[in-house]
Amino acid sequence: MIWLGVLCAALAVALVGWVVATERQMREMARNLATRGQSARPLALRFPTAAAWELAQEANHLIDEAAEEKRQLQKNLASFSHDVRTPLAGAQGYLQLYGMAVTDRERDECVAAAAERLTAMRGLVDALFEYAKADDGARALVVVPVDVGAVVAACVADLHPAFVERQWEPTVRLDEDVVAPADPEALARIVENALVNCLRHGAAAPAITLRRAATADGFTLAIANEAEGLEALDASRLFERFYRGDPSRRSGGSGLGLAIADALARAQGMTLTASLTDNRFTITLRG
């Protein structure tokens, strides 16, 4: 019986050691996770159990994701800062020329050019503000039954001058009486941003199709048009903030329009997807 007591004591000591080692490793993991903002170094721990090791591996995966997101955010902010500085520098240049102008006409031209560039900068800042609001999970949306076709038609009408300027005539096919729960303003912003994206980057008039889904209040809205340079785009990143595909191409905009649309869609329980097929860019909203 003595050997049994010794064995139990040894097992108890081993168990206590196992618990202490596990707790020490967990505390070390907690300290490392608490400082992951300052260091993206992976956790290198030796755990006494497979489950704890899996936990460390998952923590390392999350650290890698956070580090990549931080790098991407820094890259995007640098790009956005460049886009803001460019019109600001242009405005400053024209204001300096204003001081050197000798005729009223030259002064008027300088003021007009400076105002145009400041307006462009204001558009970029406003877009960033709109994205922050759209991505705010605490934002309260007013969801009511909405005539989706009426919202789409109103957005097309609002942008009619821009379509005329490009000599485009959109093809519009809307099922009647498509009513769905949505925030009217948010839904209109989604449609408007998709259409503006067509105007900025498309090569031909868009085709707009609204179809009633099998469910009572479901629908599918597709906005498609031909576009050039689609091979430079990554379809999986089209809804990322500031994403523009080929950075060498500058066709206006902040790179936030589709990100805003996606955030507003998700806030209403809808899905927004994009596809690139045979030089055709299609944005699809499903409610």
Automatic annotation (TrEMBL):
It catalyses: ATP + protein L-histidine = ADP + protein N-phospho-L-histidine. GO terms for molecular function: phosphoprotein phosphatase activity; phosphorelay sensor kinase activity. This is Sensor-like histidine kinase SenX3. The lineage of its organism: Bacteria, Bacillati, Actinomycetota, Coriobacteriia, Eggerthellales. Gene3D superfamilies: 1.10.287.130, Histidine kinase-like ATPase, C-terminal domain. Its EC number is 2.7.13.3. CDD domains: HATPase (cd00075), HisKA (cd00082). The keyword Cell membrane does not apply. GO terms for biological process: cellular response to phosphate starvation. It comes from Adlercreutzia muris.
